[in-house]
Fold this sequence. Notes:
By secondary structure, the chain is mainly alpha-helical. The protein is 55% helix and 8% strand. It has 7 helices and 4 strands; from the N terminus they run βαααβααββαα. It has helices spanning 6-26, 33-36, 47-74, 87-96, 122-142, 165-189, 197-200; strands at residues 3-5, 82-84, 152-155, 158-164. The strands form 2 sheets. Strands 1-2 form a two-stranded antiparallel sheet. Strand 3 and strand 4 form a beta hairpin. Helix 1 runs antiparallel to helix 5 (122-142) and helix 3 runs antiparallel to helix 6. The longest helix is centred in the N-terminal third of the chain and has 28 residues, at 47-74.
Amino acid sequence: MPTHQSNQLIRKLQQQTETLLNKAIQEWQMIAPEKFSQQPAEGSWSAKQCIAHLNMYGDYYLPAIEAAILKAKQQKSRASVQFTSGWLGNYFTNMMLPGTNEKPAKKMKAMKNYISLNNEDSDKVIAAFIDQQEKLLQLLEDATVVNLSTTKVAISIAKFIKLKLGDVFMFLIAHNYRHVLQAESALNASGVTVTENHIAEVSFAF
């Protein structure tokens, strides 16, 4: 399984999160709500649905991560120099990453309770995403003082399964990246010109 220098991994995750946060602040807030809500084809998600889907995951994972870090601190957890992914966490992260020309992305079907009906207010969806990314940055900073391996977080689809905190961060941010790209594709199909400059500046591979 991949091994990372813990401090370097946290910094990379922070850079990735800042990249998506800047995209929301600098671009999405300037887009007309009707464009952000426009579905590129029947049955396809609009940009708003993509981001609302991420917000639903954030509603579960951010409090779960915060609670895990707090518990780790109470138990006097200490940061380790290196972090090695678990096999299941590494699988989930790789599954979430978007594909390349050489390796297409794995197709996945979202669970029904994590699908937006496209009837929410676009400004509120974007604002919630911004708030969540700012919270995620705070949690990443908090995580610098705990052990990324021994601190565990239950996953949303099966709470009896717990992953290492480092893996949960990587999985969550890979999932964010996947659906931000999907949102960008929906915007392009709706006639909105979006830039890839912010995303291109940071590698989302692990």
